[in-house]
């Protein structure tokens, strides 16, 4: 790819690209279904509760994860939307601070009731003296998707400045970010492996010590994915011939596959998500190219009434579906455990055949829950910030507890820290006002 600054070869479509809305909705629904397949809960022969990551135990899962891990694509689309939104904000005379505050509000407001819920439930579990091991197993599971809040908040906060770099330096920014990703992985997997005397790669990593050295890639990998989204907005991928897009896909998968044994990361792409690694950065290019190839048939789908209905229904409460689906999965499984009916053994034929039905049940429950929660999805007319520097402080207060949850696992102190940090972030940025009627899906 040329290092020259990109020049749009085709006019950017005016208005909203409904295809990207469809992909965003599809990504979230795929995440929900994947987490349902992860949530294998039943009873063993002694009647004790059995909790396992069922789908991860399947021989085919590592290969499938290279296709179904769509988080890089989510950040690519986020970059596309941020570039379009920033241009619109500039035309309205909005400042960089205002732009970032709106993005923060769209993440922090939907997260507020969730952190309050976690604080109350975990506090009640401690007071009732429930089995700490069981509580920890459930809490860590339901807290696992929250890394997205921190990563997305960081990338969106950096978006205006990264766009300026993109406009001046073009592909050079991508190259520098990718070199930073490689450097962090080299320190994490090569140097630290020798330092700790570890010569194999366990499925869950090396623990906090090893993960600590990969945390800079929370910034570098997801910023790289966002920059790919800027390229997509400029029309760089649309300007490529079909064979060139296919070559990007094949070459990208080859590069990502070569990096796994070379660096020592994991064949399971979900294990590569925290902290993110080289393959996820490469997958951003692969998935952007694939989306460009599929743009025409996906656009045709958006013209059908059924798909439009799903996009409207899910898209207007996208963050609520993402944030609340795992707590709802655990609530429904808890109800199953309390009912005097046999539960299918995780991984058995009955269990697999009932997963689509359970998916529909979870989705219906989350949509019902969204009725009182949708007000948190709506962006308020922001008041003035409390003082100079309030926005960067708000981002730190919102992000740091979430990073703690992702690193250590969800528990009561971290849930309370996240709740307090989110309240403070919203107060600092003036985002507690009455919401507008605008939905939570980002306006391009």
Question: Could you explain how this protein is built, in words?
Answer:
- There is one protein chain.
- This protein has 444 residues and is mostly helical.
- Helix content is 70%, strand content 2%.
- A hairpin with a 5-residue loop joins β1 (39-43) and β2 (49-53).
- The longest helix is centred in the first third of the chain and has 33 residues, at 96-128.
Quick structural overview:
The chain is mainly α and 444 residues long. The chain has one domain (18-428). It is built from 17 helices and two strands.
* Secondary-structure-derived class: mainly alpha
Shape: globular
Number of domain modules: 1
What portion of residues is helical? Answer: 55-70%
C-alpha-based Rg, rounded: 22 Å
Count of DSSP E strands? 2
- Element-level helix/strand string: HEEHHHHHHHHHHHHHHHH
Low-confidence stretches: 1-15, 199-207, 436-444
Question: Major sheet: order of its strands?
Answer: 1-2
Strand content: under 5%
Distance between the termini: 27 Å
Count of DSSP H/I helices: 17
Q: What is the mean pLDDT?
A: 85
Largest sheet: 2 strands, antiparallel
Summarize the SSE layout with pairings.
Blueprint: H1 18-38, E1 39-43, E2 49-53, H2 61-68, H3 71-91, H4 96-128, H5 132-143, H6 147-169, H7 171-196, H8 208-214, H9 216-234, H10 242-264, H11 278-293, H12 295-302, H13 305-315, H14 318-338, H15 349-373, H16 390-408, H17 412-428
Antiparallel strand pairs: 1-2
């Amino acid at each position: 790819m040329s290092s020259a600054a990109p020049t749009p070869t085709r006019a950017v479509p005016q208005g909203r690209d409904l295809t990207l809305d469809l992909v965003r909705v599809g990504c979230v629904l795929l995440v929900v279904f994947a987490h349902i397949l992860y949530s294998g809960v039943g009873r063993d022969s002694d009647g004790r509760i059995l909790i396992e990551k069922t789908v991860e135990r399947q021989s085919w899962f590592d290969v499938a994860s290279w296709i179904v891990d769509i988080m890089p694509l989510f950040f690519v689309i986020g970059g596309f939307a941020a570039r379009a939104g920033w241009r619109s904000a500039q035309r309205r005379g909005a400042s960089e601070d205002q732009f970032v505050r709106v993005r923060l509000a769209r993440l922090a407001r939907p997260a507020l009731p969730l952190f309050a819920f976690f604080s109350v439930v975990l506090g009640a579990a401690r007071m009732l003296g429930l089995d700490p091991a069981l509580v920890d197993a459930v809490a860590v599971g339901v807290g696992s998707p929250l890394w997205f809040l921190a990563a997305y908040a960081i990338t969106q906060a950096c978006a205006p400045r990264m766009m300026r770099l993109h406009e001046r330096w073009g592909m050079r920014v991508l190259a520098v970010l990718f070199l930073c990703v490689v450097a962090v992985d080299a320190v994490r997997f090569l140097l630290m492996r020798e330092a700790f005397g570890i010569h194999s790669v366990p499925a869950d990593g090396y623990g906090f010590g090893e993960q600590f050295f990969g945390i800079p890639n929370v910034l570098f990998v997801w910023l790289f994915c966002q920059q790919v989204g800027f390229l997509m907005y400029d029309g760089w991928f649309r300007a490529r011939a079909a064979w060139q897009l296919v070559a990007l896909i094949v070459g990208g998968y080859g590069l990502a596959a070569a990096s796994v044994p070379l660096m020592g990361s994991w064949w399971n792409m979900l294990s590569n998500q925290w902290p993110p690694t080289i393959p996820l950065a490469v997958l951003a290019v692969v998935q952007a190219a694939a989306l460009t190839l599929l743009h025409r048939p996906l656009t045709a789908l958006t013209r059908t009434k059924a798909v439009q209905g799903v996009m409207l229904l899910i898209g207007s409460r996208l963050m609520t579906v993402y944030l609340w689906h795992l707590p709802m999965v655990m609530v429904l499984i808890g109800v199953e455990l309390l009912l005097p009916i046999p539960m299918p053994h995780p991984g058995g034929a009955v269990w697999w055949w009932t997963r689509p039905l359970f998916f529909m049940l979870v989705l219906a429950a989350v949509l019902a829950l969204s009725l009182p929660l949708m007000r948190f999805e709506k962006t308020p007319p922001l008041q003035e910030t409390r003082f100079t520097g309030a926005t960067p402080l708000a981002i730190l207060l919102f992000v740091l507890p979430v990073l703690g949850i992702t690193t250590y696992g969800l528990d009561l102190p971290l849930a309370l820290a996240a709740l307090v940090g989110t309240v403070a972030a919203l107060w600092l940025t003036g985002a507690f006002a009455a919401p507008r009627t605008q939905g939570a899906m980002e306006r391009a």
